[in-house]
Amino acid sequence: MSDSQDPDTTGIDQEAIGPVLGRVPSGIFILTVRHGEGETGMLASWVMQAGFEPPSVTVAVRGDRYVANWLGAEAPFALNLVSEGGKGLLAHFGRGFEPDQPAFEGLDVTHGTFDLPLLTSGTLGHLICRPTTSMTSGDHRVFLADIVEGQLRSEDAPMLHVRKSGLHY
Fold it and tell me: How far apart, in whole angstroms, are the C-alpha atoms of residue 169 and residue 61?
C-alpha cells in the first residue's frame, strides 16, 4: 500500500470552505472488520463508490485509529449501510472501541464471508470489501477496496449525513 505526502494547506481560507465542504452529503456506514482473533466496528461516513469494473469503493479512516492499521494489513471489511431508522447504531458506535473491547454486544449480528460481523438490524444491507491500496490524505488514510459481495435486505431510505462545517466531525 502506498502513502503520499501531506498537501500544503497554507493560505487556505478555512472559514470560507468549511461551510461548503460540510454540505457535501455522505451516507452513514458501520465498517466492521476482523483482524486475527479481534473484531470491531466503527462509524464511517466518508465512503464513495470508486469504480464499476471491478466494483470498488474508497473509505477514509482517521490515520491514528487502530482500524486503519488493520485495513493497512489488507484485512477484509464490511460496510453496513445504516437506514434512517438505525439511529441507535450511531450512539453505539459513535463512542468508539478499544481493540480488546467487544463492539457488538446487544446488537443483532451474523457473520458472513471472511467471518466478518454483519449488522442485521438498523441497516439496509452490506458490502464485503477487500482493500487493494491506500494513501495518506492529511490526518486520514484513504483505502481503495474491491467489492467482492453484497446484499440488500431492505428498501428503506439510507441515513444521510450533512455537517455545518467540513473542517471537523
Answer: 12
